[in-house]
Design a protein that fits this description.
There is one protein chain. This protein is of the alpha+beta class. Helix content is 41%, strand content 31%. The chain has a single domain, classed as Alpha-Beta Complex (Ribosomal Protein L22, Chain A). Helix 1 crosses helix 4 and helix 3 runs antiparallel to helix 4.
Length: 124
């Protein structure tokens, strides 16, 4: 059963500027995400925009505002083929449990200077 759906867009150019500020990086992204973004070189802004959209998409699927969960707690990783997935921290796990969701599916795309992410929460 679907417990929530969230969609978000993020402008890549805005993230290219934002990730030049260390305070922004540490406030929004986990240390693993920061390393991943910085490893992308000239496409780091595109990567950051996708990850940020993924975090916002989760919050929308959960039906909460940004004040209810630290963005660093909503972590995104990638499998061996490069597909993104959520790697929930303790607070994210609590949020999922409150929604009776046991899975959070994620898709990220980039085009035309924008990054988009879709989150689908599923549970019994």
């Amino acid at each position: 059963m679907i417990r929530g759906i969230g969609l978000d867009l993020c402008e890549i150019r805005r993230m290219e500027e934002a990730i030049t500020h260390p305070h922004f990086l540490s406030r929004v992204f986990s240390s693993e995400e920061q390393a991943y973004i910085l490893s992308k070189g000239s496409t780091g802004g595109q990567t950051a925009a996708g990850l940020y959209a993924a975090k916002e998409a989760f919050l929308k699927a959960a039906g909460t505002g940004i004040t209810h969960l630290n963005l660093c707690e909503i972590r995104v990783s990638h499998d061996e083929k490069g597909a993104p997935f959520y790697l929930p921290g303790e607070e994210m796990k609590k949020q999922l449990a409150a929604l009776q969701a046991d899975s959070a599916f994620l898709s990220i795309t980039h085009d035309g200077g924008m990054a988009a992410a879709l989150c689908v929460l599923e549970g019994c």
